[in-house]
Amino acid sequence: MNSIDLLIQNAQVFDGNGNAPQLLDVAIHNGLIHEVGPSLHMEAKQTIDAQGLALMPGIIDSHTHYDAQITWDPFVNPSPALGVTTAIIGNCGFTIAPCKPADREITMRNLTQVEGMSLDVLRQGIDWDFETFPQYLELLKRKGSAVNVAAYIGHSSVRTWVLGDQANKRTATADEIERMAAIVREAMDSGAIGFASSTSPAHNGEGGLPMPSRLANDEEMMAMIKAMGEKGKGIYMVTKGGQMPVSFLEDMSAQSGRPVMIAALLHNSTNPEAVFKDLDAITQANARGRQVVGQVSCCPLTMDFTFQSPYPVEGLQSWKPALGLSHKALIEKLSDTNFRNQVRAELATTATFRLFNNEWDKVHVVETYLPENARYEQRTVADIAKEQQKDPLDFALDLAVSEDLKTVFTALLLNSDIDAVGTMLNHPHSLVSLSDAGAHLTFFNDAGFGLHLMGYWSRELGKMTLQEAVRRLTSLPAQVLGLKNRGQIRKGFFADLLLFDPQTVNRGNKHRVFDLPGGAARLHTDAIGVKAVWVNGKQVADHNGLLEKAPLAGELLTDFC
What is the pLDDT of residues 409-454, one digit of tens each? Predict the structure, then answer.
């Protein structure tokens, strides 16, 4: 070799294994880490002096929803600029493959509800040059991507392929279950990372119908994970509802011999012990030799919403009569006293998991439509309601109805207790995740979760060391997900790297950009303190964000350990 491709000198190297950083040089050639050591003397096509900066493996985002977006945006904005070098898609089973042409419309309409996506954006953006899951993977391979991508086969899509318009209405027959299992086997043979599903009551499609996976009984669930694990590979990822105990998921791991990854473990201040009971059950399962991991978030779950599409409350049983209504009918329903009383009564009860828990002091009016209501902006619904001697629900709905449902609110829903969340992040069987990148584009954007973990939780709060934060973002998810030769700065490993300033690294404030198909808006978060990002040895981002001519350097990952 005449010269290597890149030499990074004088960096504080965090190797990804939780070790204290060392002042080292890192040599990169042909997409791999060629050498790691002090004072390397090599001829290089490019040399970077990283004095004062830190170098770590790229962030692995284990919970994204880029399944649709990646077909029109191979750069999977904004993840690469936020230090993410590998994204796992298909979480919760909300995929777009497999999908027959006849089912495309219902698939898109379901996504508008459960993932807060614009139907117009999906119609304009999705490249439907596939039907089966193997064909979908082939499409992704042809298009390329800026980051490495691995995909789950999704339960709701599999169910829709077999049951059609009955997928979200009934249980499956034995024959239908076997046909679904055959699709899962085909997907695993083609390179799926595993099988993903959801039983969460918050996950509904258009009109309030449950996402198809929620109709699966225990027999169907067990058949799917057994089909996935027949060849000794694959992860079962599930967003569980309260009716699905960890003990059943432990049994699924035992019978299939495969890991189970549970989402979404978030702290609920009105039922604060629920998440810790799940984590305790996960600990006990692992003590018995099972492989069970809980996905936790380092971000407070904050959502922007209007009552035209109020995602925080759409999982309520009492809200179902308002789902799928025309604009006029919806306004009539939201004005109905009986409807309001039913919602109020449900919110007064305790729930194991619920997005919104009647905490009106954590709901702000962000933007009003009528000039006379501007005085409410940046104030909490609780404060305004108290001032007006109104029930908070009545005030919020009255304001929304008076403004033709154009009032924008923001709600801090979950994960607001710093001590509780800190405990969850440090749990031995938790995986820091739940960015939901690629979904809920008008509600929130947690794609910068990794930078938030390092900047806020590690540097500002001191809840974990920086080397431990790096481990939980890199080698730990690589190990859990079975990613080969990724997640560490180690000779022979792929050169997925993030160069950053440890004194400033963090995620910036959210703001809107208008780069979706048709010029539609989405929430965006800029990186703070990121200097460069490499995927397989090729630079894709710098301190200004995604490179103007960023290469599609990512690989479609289909071989796992």
Answer: 999 988 999 999 999 999 999 999 999 999 988 788 899 999 999 9
pLDDT tens column, 71-106: 999 999 999 999 999 999 999 999 999 999 999 999
Q: Is the confidence at residue 231, as pLDDT, over 90?
A: no
Supply the range of the domain harboring residue 528: 59-300+415-479+492-546
Question: 205: part of which helix (H) or strand (E)?
Answer: none
Q: Which residues contact residue 289 at a Cβ distance below 8 angstroms, ignoring those fewer than 6 apart?
A: none
Cα 182 from Cα 500, distance rounded (Å): 45
User: What CATH number does the domain containing 42 carry?
Assistant: 2.30.40.10
One-letter amino acid at 385 equals A
Q: How far apart are CA 209 and CA 168, in angstroms?
A: 7
Q: How many domains does the chain have?
A: 3
Looking at the structure, tell me whether residues 435 and 534 fall in a common domain.
yes
Task: Tell me the C-alpha distance between 62 and 483, whole Å.
Answer: 11
Under a CB-based contact definition with an 8 Å cutoff, are residues 331 and 401 in contact?
A: yes
**In the predicted structure, residue 242 carries a pLDDT above the cut 90:** no
Q: What is the 3-state secondary structure (H, E, C) of 416-485?
A: CCHHHHHHHHCCCCEEECCCCECCCCCCCCCCCHHHHHHHHHHHHCCCCCHHHHHHHHCHHHHHHHCECC
In sequence order, the 6+-apart residues with CB closer than 8 A to the CB of 280 are none
pLDDT at 1: 63
Residue 551 falls inside a structural domain: no
Phi–psi pair at 544, nearest 5 degrees: -95, -5
* CB burial string 333-361: b at 16+ within 10 A, e below: bbeeeebbebbeebbeeebebbbbbbbbe
Distance CA 216, CA 197 (A): 10
Phi, psi of 521 (to 5 degrees): -90, 155
Pairwise CA distance, residues 546 & 147, whole Å: 12
Calpha distance 106→165 (Å, rounded): 8
